[in-house]
Write a structure and sequence with these properties.
This is ABC transporter ATP-binding protein. The chain is of the alpha/beta class. It contains eleven helices and 13 strands. The chain has two domains: 215 residues, Rossmann fold; 63 residues, Alpha-Beta Plaits (2-Layer Sandwich). The strands form three sheets. It has a six-stranded mixed sheet with strand order 5-6-7-3-8-9, with helices on both faces. Strands 11-12-10-13 form a four-stranded antiparallel sheet, with helices on one face. The chain is elongated and about 75 Å long.
Amino acid sequence: MIRAYELTKRYGDTTVVQDLDFTVRPGTVTGFLGPNGAGKSTTMRMLLGLDAPTRGRSTISGHAYATHSAPLTEVGALLEARSVHPGRTAFHHLMSLAHTHGIPRSRVEHVLDLAGLTAVAGKRVKGFSLGMGQRLGIAAALLGDPAVLILDEPVNGLDPEGVLWMRNLLRSLAAQGRTVLVSSHLMSEMALTADHLVIIGRGRLLADTTVADFIATAGGASVRVRTPQAPALHGLLQGPGIDITGPTGTEPGELEVRGADAAHIGRIAAAHAIPLYELTPRTASLEQAFMDLTQESVEYRITAPETTGAPA
Ligand SMILES: Nc1ncnc2c1ncn2[C@@H]1O[C@H](COP(=O)(O)OP(=O)(O)OP(=O)(O)O)[C@@H](O)[C@H]1O
């Protein structure tokens, strides 16, 4: 379990993390989401004792990180800036970490295999691609068989096969009862990987919710219907659990129906000889809901270049 209590970090006059309170539970993948510069890495560094909070505190398995006697076996971490000696091979990098905690060679071989790096274990790290570097970082994080994992943008640099591998790995680590906190700026990826979401913007907590609830509040799924007999269809569709908007003054023939699928609506319309001009299932865009939630807190916004009124 990871807990943050009013975690706050200021650099000079700038507050980059403010009063963050959240809990990351075992047995789940928790997605830590926010736009660029939201404060995800800073928060993770504070959880890992690499940055001191200006105010507030955090615990991992009930203790501050710095008080753990053998941190590699308690918490596995992957941070964006890696410190791997470029002249070392992947195997020697992991062996040197293993020595600090009395971890046997067999475990090094096991995590190399888990990360899909056995074939390149003897290669120097300086020749590694970004994706191979990420895999090596994951292997290092898993070395001590820790109950808690804190991973900063682990899919960064991975190809589609690597992204799928990472998704399955995170899910299986959580299924083993581990606590998994994984940062990302991609809502769509987290919707496929995480059970729970902690969303921040400009260092503040914006949402602490299950993925299922986020999808439901994002609008869930609806069906757009166009018909010349909208008031009649509206009346026929009404029932428990069904929510209908329209017809409106501007679009008299249009209904937005939640709680019934297109097949059900089509059958009712056919049974009453109501012509349909459109019957379109619509799924709420999670990425759009995430952008709506965080838009006020995006640090760097792309603005359209100003039009200068081109001379004739
Ligand atoms: N050492 C530092 N000194 C001053 N400002 C810093 C320092 N470290 C981070 N910041 C600022 O804190 C803010 C949050 O940065 P952080 O890297 O935690 O965000 P992030 O959510 O991880 O972003 P990204 O997705 O881009 O990695 C940014 O505005 C960044 O410029």
